[in-house]
Write the structure tokens for this entry.
Amino acid sequence: MTDAWGWEYDPDPEYVIGGIDSLAFIAKVEERADELVRAASALYLDGTKYEGLSPRMQNEPIDASGVLTYQVIPRSQRVYIRKVIFLD
């Protein structure tokens, strides 16, 4: 288990954001991921002790530029970014 909340691309950055050339859009995705981590850490104060089902994957719009799909796993204290769609 980790000792602090964080986020990561799952399975890896190449799979999730590979091929997206817009660094500005990727920066927006990562800013939103940071916000999701703050929200999850406030909702699950000690995620390592969480015993319920993990929340389902959710979609989050990134202004009109695209969408990210993420899942919060409280026991791991992680927000996993599973898919990013960029609408150019």
Remarks:
- The chain has one domain: 6-86.
- Strands lie at 6-9, 58-62, 66-73, 78-86.
- The mean pLDDT is 94.
- Residues 6-86 form a domain with the YaeB-like fold fold (CATH 3.30.2310).
